[in-house]
Amino acid sequence: MDDEIRPPAVTTNKILRMKNKFVKLLGLFSATIVLCTACTKNFDELNTDPTAYNPTNFEPNYLLTTAQLAYTGSFDFSYETWRGNLIYASTLMQQLSTVVGYWAGDKYLLNADYTAAYWIVAYPEQVKPVADLVELTKDKDKYKNLHQIARIMRAMILQRISDLYGDVPYSAAGLGYYSNVYFPVYDKQEIIYKDIIKEYEEAAIALDPAADKPTGDAFYNGKPDQIEKWKKLAYSLMLRAGARLSKIDPATAQATIQKTLGKTMQSNDDNAYLVHDATGGRPTVNRNFQVLQGQPEADYVKWSQKLIDFMKTNNDPRLPVIAELANGDRTAANQKGMPNGYDLSGVAGRDISSAPGYTGMGAYSKPSGLLNKLNAPTFIFTYGEAELLLADAAARFPGGISGIGAASTYYNNGVKAAITYMAPYDAAAAISDGAADAYLTAHPYNAGDGLNMINTQYFALTATMFDFYEGWSNWRRSGYPVLTPVVYPGNVTNGTVPRRFPYPLAEANTNPTNYKTAHDAVPGGDLLSGRVWWDKP
Questions:
Q1: CA-based end-to-end distance of the chain
Q2: Is 2 helix (H, G, I), strand (E, B) or coil?
């Protein structure tokens, strides 16, 4: 497909321009945009320098909204979402599949610009505003809860960056103005995780339902128990961080998980998600679907065979909600996933027409119109995730976590929540408790295959949430579901599923000493096949 519309590559000069531009502008790319009111006419004059603020023009809630919206994807046409979440994470995890030539993920090919995209965008668009928010609300009683929420957001944002790359700038990230450190060290991931866990716990404890209710909160604003929900989100994120250490540091994993018991999300009503606005133009729409509604993605990106076969085999009630054929048919029996690792080269064995059972692109299932909408929500964390992580912990560490319940109970809660959470996408996407109960009756928890069952359900949930970053991280941690690697000509991983993103090459020029130290220390090399610290073989 030589005439395909490709996401533009990013050059070193463009990276530098982007960094400079974002640092200056994003601090006040604010709730006025999220709420789709008019943008300021002097947008290019705004600056995140705190000395430019005064009591009459500074509203820190804007920074919270900015960071939350940016966490769902870049303002610049979903820049890193397109490249990192979709092109790479979704396909190498065999949750989505495509034959579009520049989608390198499930071919295990390296496009250094695409793997660098998350880093290049997240530091200026996510880390910088939330770092400002932490600093500018510190020791201010009227922003007591806003400050703690900023700490939670900062930890969550940097945890994802570290999960993708490993050792990364953390302690000094976004603080150049305050610390005069312009070439931040790459903190060791082990140290990053210890501090992230501390931040989640301390912030959760400090949140006070009697104090301020942040108005710039795009996750929970307007809910009477807003602060209590943030506590649950913080402990749920802490649970995830603890679970991530299951292989590399089981003792810390168990101790961390134990502290979260009874404090995590308790129902789908606690789910954290951001509702997008299709009327606000490119900055406010759902980032994943902004890409998937364009061309050639709309015609050539499909649900994977791995995911659809799992749902069809198990008569999953989510299938007719999440999938449809080109003609709009959502009948479960007619859905068909596309195998990963094919293209449109015309070469026998590689071209999709060579795939067993191929009858045309229109016969493969794509994300349904119930989900694929520009005003669809982006889910940040769900009750189903929390319960499945607790199920994993109970199954993995029997007798090792005081007070933890039965794996089967958490599994049942998690699967039911993962089936019934989708109403925020569309009222017609709602699945009844009865349908979820029937599914569990037909597929009871089997302790002998517990970790596989739990984490395969996690795989299905992160796919339907479109959080492919998290699906990839949990697979690297757990090893489930078992994936059959793609063998594509010219792949750079020796036919193994990629395990991390290499560092951006631009860092060798902009932060050379710290980059080299981190680059040289990556287990397995600074490659797609290298590993982050917690990803113990």
A1: 38
A2: coil
Distance between CA 48 and CA 240 in Å, rounded?
32
pLDDT in tens, 91-133: 999 999 999 999 999 999 999 999 999 999 999 999 999 999 9
Given a cut of 60, whether residue 14 has pLDDT beyond it is no
Q: State the Cα–Cα distance between residues 143 and 19, nearest whole angstrom.
A: 29
Residue 366 parent element (H or E): strand 366-367
Helices and strands: H and E segment counts in the chain = 23, 6
C-alpha to C-alpha distance for 177 and 326, rounded to whole angstroms: 51
Chain CA centroid to CA 131, Å? 20
How many CB atoms within 10 Å of residue 141?
Answer: 8
Instruction: Please report the pLDDT score of residue 57 as a whole number.
Output: 63
In 3D space, the residue among 519, 521, 492 whose CA is nearest the CA of residue 503 turns out to be: 519
CA distances from 465 to 197, 304, 418, 514 (A): 24, 15, 9, 35
- Residue 192: what are its φ and ψ, rounded to 5°? -60, -45
Torsion of CA 63, 68, 69, 73, to 10 degrees: 120
Cα–Cα dist 413/399, whole Å? 21
* Euclidean distance between CA atoms 435 and 315, whole angstroms: 11
Asked whether the predicted pLDDT for residue 308 surpasses 60, the reply is yes
Q: How high is the mean pLDDT of the chain? A: 91
The Cα–Cα gap between 225 and 221 comes to 9
